[in-house]
Design brief:
Helix content of chain B: 25-40%
Structural class of chain B: alpha/beta
Distance between the termini of chain B: 41 Å
Strand content of chain A: 5-15%
Number of helices of chain B: 10
Radius of gyration of chain B: 19 Å
Strand content of chain B: 15-25%
Largest sheet of chain A: 9 strands, parallel
Radius of gyration of chain A: 18 Å
Oligomer: heterodimer
Number of strands of chain A: 9
Number of strands of chain B: 10
Shape of chain B: globular
Largest sheet of chain B: 8 strands, parallel
Helix content of chain A: 25-40%
Distance between the termini of chain A: 45 Å
Chain lengths: 311, 305
């Protein structure tokens, strides 16, 4: 008989992401999501603290524990009081822990990240990576790409020229209110979609757009928190005034999640920034967007109803 | 650390979510005689004063993860105990039941967080599992909490009274008491072994001799340390205090001077931690005193002296 015979309060106990089971990489198979944290950051940035991102996500995500842990009562859609069946998420989402990059050189850390993500990709499962600053994205994406060719999709980040990394889609790049403002950057193999344009797209349209761009390859998505609008200013070191609203991000992640996604990397959350309650509220809203992605990725039945809520 | 798999290097283990002392996660079936089962108590709803001590287990785990210290063998993190913050009687009942089942494995419980008002329930469970012999409860705190239990059966202020009422050869002693004791508690303190904070600050610690004699007369010891024994500069606690009190070093020196108490159980209560996700605040400051409790329990693998 286990020690606990009664439920825990929401914030008590070991804080895994959404209260899912901890598991080793070996437990992953096709059709499952393995969540891994990478608490690493370049300490040369203006404000440090992104290394606490994985724990902040986990801490916030326990508010959504009922989606992944049967100990909590089932969620209910407030509007029609219908119970949401979350059984399709339970036992298909695992928290693998953090990649221990502490004390390693940048090169050794990159190698460890690449190899760990390659091992996860090798199982056929989809990886959900919680950073860490944007520096973790490259080795994580490369690790997956070493196992299976992917089509890279970026959300947020700087609108630089197309590089060898070969993003096929770039949503809401920084300092770009509209794609028309920077037509040359959209030329070639990459398509740039501004935050303003995302506001006019539904999840199905985003899916179609990404499917065409991917050309049969699974997606490798990098979401940097800098994609978000200024009302999220307390969450990111790169606050902006032309970013995505929560509803746009939710539709974006829902649309992408319905396609084969080998990896989603989330970077740039700095939970130590002084933003008063905005930080915690922003983190919680961000987890709702991740929940949309997880529901879409695992084909949860409430995916469509959640899309309606996001709209 | 990495291992060579022949194809690519992978970490020998991904670090798990933060745990007490970075110890492995376990449940009842994993612990046995002599092991130390560290548990958190997410409940401060019945104590007087500022709430927030319920967050100590979480912040303490964060602090341990940052600190990187490794636990000795035989130490396990059993998660947090089930509690019912809105149902007092049920809460005490379930805490007592969990403490009883844990004690029956032969493992020693180290409880972190929560409020002293819950301690009688833990001791009732411990006593039910180990009914024989004299159990000494050494309370290291700024206050004796010997108020009559009539007003509120769950309050912290009457916790020591309720522990005494458990009967069954339970004896309570105090260390670190502040200079002022409420008049209502003075009579109850008269026939009790106690040592004031002033005596604990004395370099020779000669004043703690009665405590040593008291400990020698007990068959087993339960060690209860409250953050309110610390100076306000060292800790923010649920209960407002006057200036004065011990430093972390003074508490460590006191525990050391008491000798091998070999506690069958221990707890650290009353600390209201900073709620930073980094765990760098007051949770981290109390790592050493709590580890001292752990060390004492590791030394005392024999539950009876």
């Amino acid at each position: 008989m286990p020690l606990r015979t009664a439920p825990l309060p929401r914030m008590a106990g070991h804080l895994t992401f959404m209260r899912v089971e901890q598991a080793p990489v070996d437990a992953l198979t096709t059709g499952r999501i393995g969540l891994v944290g990478i608490p690493r950051e370049d300490t040369g940035t203006r404000a440090t603290g992104a290394r606490f991102g994985p724990n902040a996500f986990r801490e916030t995500s326990v508010y959504f524990g009922w989606h992944a842990n049967p100990q909590f009562s089932r969620p209910v859609v407030i509007g029609d009081r219908a119970t949401i069946d979350t059984s399709s998420i339970q036992a298909r989402l695992f928290d693998l822990g953090d990649i221990p990059t502490g004390g390693l050189t940048a090169e050794a850390g990159d190698l460890l990240i690449r190899s760990t993500l390659r091992q996860i990709a090798n199982t056929g499962a989809s990886a959900l990576v919680l950073g860490g600053d944007k520096g973790i994205a490259a080795p994580a994406l490369e690790g997956v790409a070493a196992e299976t060719p992917t089509a890279r999709v970026r959300i947020g980040g700087l609108a630089g020229a197309p590089g060898p990394r070969g993003d096929v889609l770039h949503f809401a790049p920084h300092r770009l209110a509209s794609a028309e403002a920077l037509p040359d950057r959209g030329a070639g193999h990459r398509r740039i979609v501004s935050a303003r344009q995302v506001a006019g797209l539904d999840a199905a349209a985003i899916s179609r757009m990404a499917e065409r761009a991917a050309d049969g390859r699974p997606l490798a998505v990098h979401l940097d928190i800098s994609a978000l609008d200024s009302c999220w200013h307390g969450a990111s070191d790169m606050p902006r005034f032309d970013g995505l609203a929560l509803s746009g991000l939710r539709r974006l992640l829902t649309g992408l999640g319905r396609l084969p996604v080998a990896i989603l990397v989330v970077t740039g959350l700095n939970p130590t920034l002084s933003g008063l309650a905005t930080v915690k509220t922003g983190q919680r809203l961000l987890v709702t967007a991740l929940l949309d992605y997880i529901c879409a990725r695992l084909g949860a039945p409430d995916d469509r109803s959640r899309e309606g809520a996001a709209a | 650390m990495t291992v060579d798999t022949g194809r690519w290097p992978v970490p020998a283990a991904l670090s798990v979510v933060p745990t007490f002392f970075n110890a492995p996660v376990a449940d009842l079936e994993d612990v046995g005689p002599g092991d130390v089962a560290v548990v958190g108590i997410y409940c401060d709803h019945y104590g007087e004063g500022e709430p927030g001590a319920r967050f100590l287990p979480r912040q303490f785990r964060y602090a341990c993860a940052l600190d990187g210290r490794s636990p000795p063998g035989g130490v396990f993190d059993l998660g947090d105990l089930s509690v019912f913050p809105l149902e007092p009687e049920r809460c005490l009942e379930v805490l007592s039941d969990q403490a009883r089942r844990l004690a029956r494995t032969g493992a020693h419980m180290l409880a972190i967080g929560g409020d002293y008002g819950l301690t009688p329930a833990l001791l009732a469970g411990l006593r039910a599992a180990r009914p024989s012999g004299t159990l000494g409860v050494l309370r290291i705190s700024g206050s004796a909490d010997l108020a009559p239990s009539g007003a509120s059966v769950l309050s912290r202020g009457s916790a020591s009274t309720r522990i005494r009422a458990l009967g069954g050869s339970i004896r309570v002693a105090f260390a670190g008491l502040s200079g002022s004791v409420p008049e209502a508690e003075a009579a109850a303190l008269a026939d009790t072994v106690f040592v004031t904070a002033r005596s604990c600050l004395d370099e020779t610690l000669a004043g703690i001799a009665p405590l040593r004699a008291w400990a020698d007369s007990c068959d087993a010891i339960y060690l209860s340390v409250d953050a309110d024994v610390l100076s306000p500069a060292c800790a923010r606690t649920a209960r407002a205090r006057q200036q004065g009190g011990l430093s972390h070093g003074d508490v460590l020196r006191l525990l050391d001077a008491l000798g091998p108490l070999r506690p069958v159980g221990a707890e650290f209560t009353g600390l209201v931690p900073d709620l930073d996700v980094a765990g760098r605040g007051r949770g981290a400051m109390c790592l050493d005193p709590v580890e001292a409790l752990l060390s004492g329990m590791i030394e005392g693998r024999d539950p009876c002296r």
